[in-house]
Amino acid sequence: MRENRIKRKLQAGQPVHVVSGHANTDMIDYLGHFGFDGIWLEGEHGPLSWEQIGDMSRACDLWGMTSVTRVNNNEPGIIMRALDRGTMGIVVPHVNSRQDAEKAMKSTKYTPMGYRGMFGGRQAFGVPDYVHRANEQTMVVVLIEEIEAVDHLAEILTVDNIDVFFVAPSDLSQTMGHLGNPGHPEVQAVIDKALAQIIAAGRTAGTLVNDANVERYLKAGVRFCMTGWTNWVAQGAAAYLQKTAAIR
User: Fold this and answer.
1) pLDDT tens column, 197-216
2) Looking at 22, 33, 45, 94, which residue is catalytic?
3) What pLDDT digit, counting tens, does each position of 48-69 carry?
4) Domain range annotation of the chain
């Protein structure tokens, strides 16, 4: 059975780096040789289809990267189907209570942990005991992306078998009254407090990072770092055009 690289590294206390942004199989294949730990497949805000989950997770498998798919709803049928299509991890949005967190975890795991539907899909090929071993390698990430979730974070953190508690800046800023401004000092203070609370509870904290803040978050104890490769394209494109403009 394939190893979940992100789970292995997190269990060893090591940070992981996951890349998102306009994913397709060729882009995943290209990013693979740089050594990233995983690819974030966007099924909530992006155009990801069920067929593409199969193809993109295959591309991740070729490089030993973990495919983590953000689904668009905390529903057992949606989570089950994404897993059956081959993704190794599920990212669940809008987890605002202990009940939400339990639902996300149980939808991802077979008994005795949960109630994932009895089918294996692509990752089960050649693994006759897949349903007995899948819980070890399948991961779940819950998004703490609303102030309601922050208010209920203590009870959310009591749910076991969740691999990452991910604090999402943009939606959080909106629910705090700072639409489109996740860098607002009030928002940043809440993010830092939530991450510290997750770490103090002995859980794994994750958040969105960029080139400017990744070192700060790593030093603070964040272990699941997600960043967008489109930021690097934007920086390179701007620098290139600036250089060429000066020559005219």
Assistant:
1) 999 999 999 999 999 999 99
2) 45
3) 999 999 999 999 999 999 999 9
4) 5-247
Give the E-state strand segments of 24-149 in sequence order: 38-42, 66-70, 89-92, 139-144
Residue 132 clears pLDDT 90, i.e. is over it = yes
Q: Which DSSP symbol is given to 94? A: -
DSSP E strands in 45-163: the ranges are: 66-70, 89-92, 139-144
Q: Looking only at Cα atoms, what is the longest distance across the chain? A: 68
Active site residue 45: yes
Decide if domain 5-247 falls under CATH 3.90.190.20.
Answer: no
CA distance 166 to 108: 17
CB 31 within 8 A of CB 18: no
> What pTM does this model have?
0.96
